[in-house]
UniProtKB/TrEMBL annotation:
InterPro entries named among the record's database cross-references: ClpP/crotonase-like_dom_sf, Peptidase_S49, S49_SppA_C
Biased composition range(s): Basic and acidic residues: 56-67
Domain of life where this protein originates: Bacteria
Annotated stretches, region: Disordered: 1-67
Protein name per UniProt: S49 family peptidase
Residue ranges annotated for the Peptidase S49 domain, each copy included: 189-335
Similarity section: Belongs to the peptidase S49 family.
Keyword Oxidoreductase appears in the UniProt entry: no
TM helices/strands, residue ranges: 93-111
Keywords: Hydrolase, Membrane, Protease, Serine protease, Transmembrane, Transmembrane helix
Any one GO MF annotation of this record: serine-type peptidase activity
Amino acid sequence: MQSGEDSSGPAKGPSTGQPTSRTGEERDLWAERPGQARAAADEQPGRGRRSGKPAAGDKDDGVGKEPGWERSVLEKLAFASLKEQRARRRWNILLRFLFLAYLVFLAWLFLSRTQWTSEPARGLHTAMVNIQGVIAEDKPASARYLLPALRAAFEQSQSQAVLLNINSPGGSPVQAGIVHDEILRLKAKHGKPVYAVIGDAGASAAYYIAVAADRIYVDKASLVGSIGVLLNGFGFTEAMDRLGVERRLLTSGEHKGFLDPFSPMQASDVEHAKQMLRQIHQQFITVVREGRGERLKESPEMFSGLFWTGEESIQLGLADAYGSVHSVARDVVQAEKLIDYSYKRNLADQLANRLGASLGAGVGTGAMQELQGEAVPWR
């Protein structure tokens, strides 16, 4: 090797005699391991640090980027994650606040649930109580809601009479009996007249309540009557036999499976059920006779469960005359102003009823269906 030769110049290969480019070897090495390019260049003896710009023909594999770019990217990711956590925390706080506000709103509804009249009573007026829909314990036409409304209507000193606005196909004899007896008690205590006005229908249990009034008014097309009792259900014994389903009913009493829809009917059970129906029917007949008195023109069909039009009901003595709530208040009571004392169920009552129904349905629905309901309907 010549002493004056530049060490950085091209050197001949040992066999070929061709010049070998050191830069080319380094470039191939860097291309295979781009992440070690700068370190490899700095570690070679006799070579200075490479320029930040890539040489001609070199690939830009991120080596020429500004120093510290990895740190900048990590900082951006960290700040983005922090912002996301803060946003999630704000949403959690907002949702908790809304839930708390909802609970406060429900509590306020429960505390303000004793609003019985639709407007304050001012001046002489006719107090009206609506009896609408099916008469049942969990319905607006139940003793739970009707009794407080009736008491408020009777106790109001400026109400001249109490008007029962009836539009119901009937329902529970128990609920109807409670309301009927309370009307008689309040009427005797306060000495105010009571008038019943039947709209589309005043049948069965609804008519049971109506006979507590001093007079009953109807429209000529109203449906009135249906003085009878029924107990209905279904039997599935033959269908179960065809499907190969076996009924396994264990009882501790001889008649504990009374009227079970999945078991054959027993003659003794049928006779006992009919006896109960006859007894309740006789109670209904007695109430109608006491309420209508000599106005009633009895016939063999009157207590058979049939219902009649308003026109026929006047002829049979089941009703007294034609009239509406407005005409009775104006012409009979002579206090044309009507004030509704009916209880308006608010959101809290509806939610409570729905919650109670949902909880009770999972526990007692099957048993109640086997017993054919809580009460015998007058329909």
